[in-house]
Structures are given as structure tokens and as C-alpha cells.
Amino acid sequence: MEALLAVIVGILFAAAVYMLLRRSIVKLVIGLMLLSNAANLLVFVTAGLRRGAPPLVPEGLAAPPSAVADPLPQALVLTAIVISFGVLSFAVVLVRRAWELVRTDDLDRLQDTDR
Amino acid sequence: MQALVLGGFVVSGVAPWLHRLMGGRAALLLALWPAAILAWLLGQWSGVVAGEALVSEWAWMPALDVSLTFRLDGLALLFALLIVGIGGLVLVYAGGYLRGHSQLPRFLVLFLVFMTAMLGLVLADNLVALFVFWELTGLSSYLLIGFRHTDPLARQAARQALLITTGGGLALLVGLILLAQAGDSWSLATLVTRGDTLRAHPLYPCLLAGILLGAFTKSAQFPFQFWLPNAMVAPTPVSAYLHSATLVKAGIYLMARLHPALGGSVAWTLTLVLVGGVTLVLGAVMALRQTNLKLMLAHSTVMALGVMTLLLGVGTRTALTACLVFLVAHAFYKGALFLVAGILDVSTGTLDITAMGGLRHALPGTALVAALAALSLAGLPPTLGFVAKEQVWATLLTSDPWGGVALAALVPAAGLMVAVAAIVAVRPFFGPPVATPRAPRSRPSSLLLGAAPLATLSLLAGLGPGVLDGLLSAALSAIGAPGEAPHLALWHGFGWPLALSLGGLLLGWLAFRHWDRLRGWLEVGLAPWVARGPEVWHAALGWRTLQLAEWQTRWLQNGHLRSYLAIILMSWIGLVGQALVVHHGLPGWPSSGIQAFEGMVAGLMAVAAVTACLVRSRLAAVAALGSMGFAIALTFVLFSAPDLAITQLLVETLTVVLLALVLFRLPHFTRLSSFRQRWRDLGIAGLAGGLVTALMLAVLDGERLPRISDWMVSQGQPLGHGRNLVNVILVDIRALDTLGEVFVLALAATGVYAMLCLRAEESSWSSPAP
């Protein structure tokens, strides 16, 4: 399953890169979303997958009785999900604001708006 | 010794403050510093002459074998005496020369920094320390040449000198590192004892080339000689001190110092004799072409440096003796002559020799100093210049096979030097008075106070050259030529040396008599060569470099975000891909079971991602992204990450809502890129995605190292008192990180709010270009 998910992550990355290379700024934002999802999944998958063993300690015990999924990458990914949401919402609002002001979503035209 | 050397930097820091307190007289007070060092050095004289080297160690970066160890042996003492002695005199002179100049404090600081760096250079025993001081002299020289920075010529000359000397400095750095590797030591004192090992080492040609390039650029040897005459735009004290007496001798010092380690091989001898020979002939001929006093002196300095290089190349004991005597003589007379040039400049407002005459009445003291120094330059008795010249002749007459070649170059060149000396000492001061731009008037006495001692030293050392015997002997043993002390004397009796001197004198006299006609010939005859000389190569090289820089800036930094991204991505793909293939090989395919349901979820993710890229409707794109997010959440559920699944679901919902709200106020998707561009981007994207997959497979393939999370799993409950281990990590083990995350979110929220609500600015924003 890890190998399959590795391929999927590769596809997600490819899609993200393709969108990041577009001229339309809205597509750039979509590329950003794809990229953050792909990165989260990458960290999650490469740490190793385990079915049906969430990192929880049962009542009355000091440690899980059997091996559980690695909690550290999960904690990292959790942080990353939330941060990427923050970045995304900022980016989306920024793009909207830019559109309102300069009325173009072509990155090549945005070049000239400072002059 | 460290305090004595490095204290100069402190003194230079005090200089501006001192200048504010007492104005131009601060230079006199500051000259006490070199005077103090001079006194200390003279105190060490007897010990050093007896053959002891004074070593003062200070570990600077012991882990890297870099120490700030200073070593005072004969050679170092000789140079150090010249540096602080002449430095002090020139400092006194500069106080008068630049009196009232608004930038005098800056000059004092730079001058003292240079002097200190130069002192450190000749005393340093560690190669790294030597290089640091070497570069420091180059930098301060740059700032001093460009002292009159409002003059474009000064800036250009400063830049040229900097580019050439630091370019050579880079070669020197490579050479020194190779030297340290080949000789297995960073200490000069150790390296000079390993000459045989070094000369037999396979790296010898490379390290020799690097070191000689550094020395040649610094000491203005052909084909790098042109920066030195151009550097004459600097104030005259700088020309006198840096560009004749000290800085340009740094290369000579380095070659002399490394002579026992590197010298004696065919490559060494051939290079030094040839380069020195060409340089000295070129300097002598070019000197006679000038009418500007400083330029004439600068070219004759080039000639003198060529002589020293040549003598180092010949490398016998007598040749080294001659080199050192000539070095001392040159420092005395050339320093004095430059200072005279400066006095003439401030008194008459011109440096053109043909525009001066009969100044001996107005400036009698200056005329006397000029005459004394010129006697030494011409190599006439009873000056040190004569002693040095006789020594050079005696050396070359006895050394085969290079002596003959060298003599063929040197005798005419020496003749031309006689002519230069006569021109410098006679033309401005004798003959009928010529109207100068300013009526000549006598200048502050500090000017003469700086110049006179140097000329006097030329004379005194010539009358009793035996004073130098002990020091020369110590210096010679420091550079690998021990033996009994040389016996310098003014009068060596009749013989070939005297005959050669007389021949040179005759030639010089003829050249002086017919200088005006000779100059005309040289002007016309040499013009095509000068127009094709190394200076033009240098300029062309600089111009081409600029063109290249412009071209690559236009190409790499074109202002398009996507081309920056493409360049970064392609570099990443190339570098990481290469590293992966070379160090790991292509990763294998781990076999593991896939359940049908999981496969479907994974497939949904991929399809959704691709759909999001392909659709032209914004709603469809948002929907595709949403399904991808939910598929990811499902994956989290399947593989034991309930917290992630919850968060992902929540965030995904919010994202879809946000996009649905905002995206529809945005324009429709338009297809802006061309067909070719899309395929090119698709290629980059495919490579990037493939590389990520390969990297992940390589990671999954590799062995697992012991993990910190095992500790977290076992201690989460006992120490963190929580049963959800992910939560324990977030709020306990990595609490500070989570706090930072909260701040980031708060900032993002503030930004979003600001952009959505605050519209005060909008009215002032001009409507965009169409």
C-alpha cells in the first residue's frame, strides 16, 4: 500500500507543480492546495502505515499494549494541515483583493501594476 | 608582539577622534605609534642579528590549525623596519600634504590600517594569517587609491587595482592551501625546511603557479604591471608608501620568504628571470615616455620590482644579497622621490616635468633632497643605490647561465634609470625658471621633514653600508642562504662592475641629453603596443564579464514567477535526482498487500487531483479538490490516524466554503499558456512527481533508525498524563511549536480580516493599466 500511495503522492505533486507553473493566479492557488495536501500525505506515508492501531493508550495502562501507529508524524501533519489552511485562506483573500484592484488574474500582467 | 602589531587597528580607530581634538597635527602624534614600534624593533636588532627568531604564539582557531603566530627573524625585521620607519615619515608628511583636507581623518584611519596589515603580513608565520593580512593590504590599498572618490579616474584605477590584486589573491589562496597540503603544515617556519619534499611533490607546479600569480599581481610584474602607474591617482603619500616602498614589495617578500621552500627549480628560475626581465625592460622604457613626474617614478618602480624578481629567480646567495640591498636602497630613494614629487605638486600645481624649471631658488631644501635621492636612483656613489648596483653587477657577472641574459636586459635599463634620475633631479630645479600654474612657494615644513630623512638615509647607508651586514646576514639565513655575513662596501675597486656602471652612466647621460627627442620617438613607436597591451586585455575582460552578467540576469531573472519556479524545480530535479541515482540507485518496489477499498480511495485522490487541473469550470475544480481532501481524510482513517482525519475533514469543509465564497468573485479560468508551454510544464511536473515517488520508495526501502517516537509512545501517559498520544505531543512535548502555530493562524486571520474589511485605500488606488 505504501508503494501505491507513493505513486499517488507523485501524481499529486505533478498536478501541483503543473498548476503552479500556470499564468492564471487562481490556478496558482489551486496548485498551492494540491501541494500542501501532497506534502502532508508524503510525511504520513513515508513514516510507515499501520492498519487499525491508532496511537491511543487504553484506560488503566501506562503505554499501549501492542505496537501502534507512529504518533509523531501524525502530530507534524496535523500542525501542517492547520497551517496550510491559514496560508490558503490568506492567499485566496489576497488573490481576491488583487483582482478587485487590478482586474487581471494574469501573472504576466501583474508585473506591471507596480509601475 | 600581537599587541604591538594588532594595536595598530586600535590606534587607527582613535585617529578620527584625535583629529577632531587637534586637527592636522594629529598626524604628528599618530606618527609616534610607528616610532614606538620602530624603537621596539631596533631593540630586537642585536638578538635577531645573532640568529635568534622571536616567536610569539597565539592560537586563533586551533581546530583549523590557524594561529596568529608572529615570528620576527632577519627577513621580517628588515621589512618591518622599512614599513614602520617609512610609515612614520610618510605619516608626518601626509599631515602637511593633506592639511585642511576634509577627509584627512579617513586618510589617517586607512593609512594606519594599511600599515598594520602590512606589518602583520611580514610577521605572520601562519599561511592563513598571512593571507588575511595580504588581502587586508589589498583592500586598504583600494580605498587609498580611490581616496579622491569624486574623481571617476580614481575610482576606475582603484577598481582596476582591486580586481587585479584580489584576482591574484584568489590564485594565491589556492596556492597556499596546496602548499599547506603538500608540505603538511600551515607554518612558514616549518615549510621552509621541507623544500626538497615540496619540490618533488606532484602538486608543485600548481601551487607554484598560484603563489607566483599572487606575488606577480601584487608586485606589478608583467603582464599585470599596468595597475601600478594607474594607481598614481592616489594622494602622493599613498604613492610613496604603498606603491613604491611597501605594498608592492609584498610579492617580493612572499617570493623571498618561500624561496627556500619553492625556489631553485627550473620552473621557478625560468619564470622569475623571464617575467622579471620583461618587467624591468618595460618599466625602464615606459618611464622615459612619461612627462608626469609621478608616472615616471611609477614606471621606474615597476622596473625596480622587475630587477628584484629577476634576482630572486637567479637565486644564488649573492643574488639574494643583491636583491635585499637593492630593496632597501629602492625603498629609501623612491620614497623620497615620491615625496619630492608631492612637494612639487603642492608648490607649483603641476606634475608635468616639462612645465617646471629653475625651482632650486624657491625650494632649495627640496632640490637637495631630490638630488640626494636621484643620486641613489642613478646608482652613483656615495649612496646606497651605488652599493646595490655594484652588488647586482657582481652577482650577474658570476652567475651562469642567467647572468648574461639578465645583464643584457639590465645594463640598458640601468642606463635609462640614470636618465630618469637626471630628469627628475635636474629638469624641475635647474635651468631657466618656467612659469608654473601656481607661483612656487615654500610649503609646511612637515613635508620636508618627511622626505629629508629618507634621502639622508640613502646617503648614510651608502657611506657606511657595513651597518647592514648583520641584518642582511640574518635575513639571508631566514631565506635559506646562511653563511658568513656579506661585506657591503662603497668601494669595491676597479673591475667589471665599475665598468658596467660607467657604461650605464654614459648611456643614461646620452638619454638625458636627448630626452625630448627620445620621448617623441617612444611616444610614436610604442603607441601601437600600448594600445594592444595587457591593460586593454584587462578592460576587454571586464567588459565581457559585465556583458555575461547582463545576459544571464536577463535570462534568469526575467520577472516571470513561473520561470523562476521552473528553474528552481529543474535544478532540484537535476541535483536530487543525480544524488539519488548515484548514492542509492533506483529504489525497488516494496511488495505489500493492497485491499480493494484502499486502492479505490487512492485512485479517487489521483483522479480528483488530475480533474482539478483539467476542468475549465471553477465549481468543478472546487468540487474535485473537495473530493480529494475527503479521500485523504479517509486514508487517515484507514491507517490509524483518527485525529488527522477529523482535522482534515474540518479544514476541507472550511476550505470548500471559503473557495465557494471567494472564487466566484474571481474571473473564469482562461487558457493563457500556449500549447508548447503546457507540454513543457507537463514535462517538468511529470519529472518532479516521478522524483518524489522515487524518493519516497527509497525512504521506505531504507533501514529504519531508532526513533524518538518510541520514547514518546512509552512516556506519553506517565509524563504527559494523556491517553491520546498525538494530543500529548501537540500540547505537551511540542507545546511551543503549537503556540507558534496559533500565532501564525492569528496573523493569517488578521490579514484576511484586514483585506476583506478595510477599504480606505481603495479610493486612492489608480485604475490599473489595461
UniProtKB/TrEMBL annotation, chain A:
Output the Pfam families linked to this UniProt entry: Oxidored_q2
User: Keywords assigned by UniProt?
Assistant: Cell membrane, Membrane, Transmembrane, Transmembrane helix
The listed locations are: Cell membrane
In the bilayer, the protein is annotated as: Multi-pass membrane protein
Name the source's superkingdom: Bacteria
Q: Has UniProt tagged this entry with the keyword Ribonucleoprotein?
A: no
Membrane-traversing stretches: 6-21, 28-49, 75-95
The family line of this record is:
Belongs to the CPA3 antiporters (TC 2.A.63) subunit C family.
Under NCBIfam families, the record lists: PRK09094.1, PRK12659.1
List the protein's name: Multicomponent Na+:H+ antiporter subunit C
Record the organism. Answer: Halomonas organivorans
Q: What is the lineage of its organism?
A: Bacteria, Pseudomonadati, Pseudomonadota, Gammaproteobacteria, Oceanospirillales
Automatic annotation (TrEMBL), chain B:
What is the recorded membrane topology of this protein? Multi-pass membrane protein
Source superkingdom? Bacteria
GO BP annotation list? monoatomic ion transport
Q: Which residues form the NADH:quinone oxidoreductase/Mrp antiporter transmembrane domain?
A: 124-407
Q: Indicate the segments forming the NADH-Ubiquinone oxidoreductase (complex I) chain 5 N-terminal domain, all copies.
A: 60-107
Q: Pfam families attached here?
A: MbhD, MbhE, Proton_antipo_M, Proton_antipo_N
Its subcellular locations are:
Cell membrane; Membrane
Record GO cellular component, one term: plasma membrane
Q: What sections of the protein cross the membrane?
A: 74-95, 107-124, 130-149, 161-182, 202-220, 232-254, 266-288, 295-313, 319-344, 365-384, 404-426, 447-468, 488-512, 564-582, 594-615, 622-639, 645-667, 679-700
Does this entry carry the keyword Transmembrane? yes
- Kindly give the InterPro entries that the UniProt entry links to this protein: CPA3_Na-H_Antiporter_A, MrpA_C/MbhD, MrpA_C/MbhE, ND/Mrp_TM, Proton_antipo_N
Per UniProt, which keywords does this protein have?
Antiport, Cell membrane, Ion transport, Membrane, Transmembrane, Transmembrane helix, Transport
A GO molecular function annotation here is: antiporter activity
The MrpA C-terminal/MbhD domain covers 604-667
- The MrpA C-terminal/MbhE domain covers 677-757
Q: Which named protein is this? A: Multicomponent Na+:H+ antiporter subunit A
Protein's organism: Halomonas organivorans
